[in-house]
Amino acid sequence: MMVLVKDRRNLNLRLPLPEGHQRRPAFPLPLSLSSVSSTGTSNLSSSAAGASFSDFKTLEVLGHGNSGTVYKVENKRTAAVYALKVVHGDSDPTVRRQIFREMEILRRTTDSPFVVRCHGIFEKPGGDISILMEYMESGTLDSILKTTGSFSETSLVHVARHVLNGLSYLHAHKIVHRDIKPSNLLVNRSMEVKIADFGVSRIMTRTLDPCNSYVGTCAYMSPERFDPETYGANYDGYAGDIWSLALTLMELYLGHLPFLLPGQKPDWATLMCAICFGDPPRLPDEASDEFRSFIGCCLHKESSKRWTAAQLLTHPFVNKDSGLDK
């Protein structure tokens, strides 16, 4: 009897590092702003143009992002409020690379109402970098989810429409975000949803430039990010953002990560195996046909079959009346 022996494929099982919240620098208050000089401030808004950092006072810490600590600051002359992202000059080299990457991207993305706006970039002689950004009063979608509970479909139509407009803009400028998730989507008092945190983004030099490095957050990563040998053939590099958006919308709807049970804590190996070997998650039966169809268009395991951001903006789900865009 003949036995067919199939070559065993070596799956790349390297795990990305978990979110480094314990390694992020925490800067004490008050933050001294008076000694900072501006650099590359051609993209300052009219409301911030001409202001020096001595014109600002620190109000509170908003949180710790992938690339530093974010403060709420106020212009003492105009009372305008901003978010100030600060990275110290002696920070980890990886963090420094991320912030310079973010600076490069922010200089390119000042024209979209669906991307958090940069009002100025400043450096201190010692190497500290500060980015003055639009303040989003209502926080992140992640914080709203934890405070108010799961989102209705009506609210998610609004979220999807805004994020897709932002992604369509970024992708048209050959920018891949690579870390779309609820904590990187910010909301202002007008309930506008905007994309933030470009610490792991990449500016693509070619349309088909592969983007399969192990960055971003494991739970939202697409199959080809883990296993490009199987799932990444001929994908265009932007499809990973679409996968992440679908999982984000599902999490907001379900109240938990789609690949986990309610209350289950993320386990990186479990998530990786579920993403690579399991079927894409599905919405429950009570979700509308349009919503389930939309998610299906985003979660093809073969990345080339996923709809683009521009195509998804024409989907019936996105064009339903959310009642929030008026």
TrEMBL record:
<keyword id="KW-0808">Transferase</keyword>
<comment type="similarity">
    <text>Belongs to the protein kinase superfamily. STE Ser/Thr protein kinase family. MAP kinase kinase subfamily.</text>
</comment>
<keyword id="KW-0418">Kinase</keyword>
<dbReference type="GO" id="GO:0006950">
    <property type="term" value="P:response to stress"/>
</dbReference>
<dbReference type="GO" id="GO:0004708">
    <property type="term" value="F:MAP kinase kinase activity"/>
</dbReference>
<dbReference type="InterPro" id="IPR000719">
    <property type="entry name" value="Prot_kinase_dom"/>
</dbReference>
<dbReference type="GO" id="GO:0051707">
    <property type="term" value="P:response to other organism"/>
</dbReference>
<feature type="domain" description="Protein kinase">
    <location>
        <begin position="56"/>
        <end position="318"/>
    </location>
</feature>
<keyword id="KW-0067">ATP-binding</keyword>
<dbReference type="Pfam" id="PF00069">
    <property type="entry name" value="Pkinase"/>
</dbReference>
<dbReference type="GO" id="GO:0005524">
    <property type="term" value="F:ATP binding"/>
</dbReference>
<keyword id="KW-0723">Serine/threonine-protein kinase</keyword>
<keyword id="KW-0597">Phosphoprotein</keyword>
<keyword id="KW-0547">Nucleotide-binding</keyword>
<dbReference type="GO" id="GO:0004674">
    <property type="term" value="F:protein serine/threonine kinase activity"/>
</dbReference>
<dbReference type="InterPro" id="IPR017441">
    <property type="entry name" value="Protein_kinase_ATP_BS"/>
</dbReference>
<dbReference type="InterPro" id="IPR011009">
    <property type="entry name" value="Kinase-like_dom_sf"/>
</dbReference>
<feature type="binding site">
    <location>
        <position position="85"/>
    </location>
    <ligand>
        <name>ATP</name>
    </ligand>
</feature>
<protein>
    <recommendedName>
        <fullName>mitogen-activated protein kinase kinase</fullName>
        <ecNumber>2.7.12.2</ecNumber>
    </recommendedName>
</protein>
<dbReference type="InterPro" id="IPR008271">
    <property type="entry name" value="Ser/Thr_kinase_AS"/>
</dbReference>
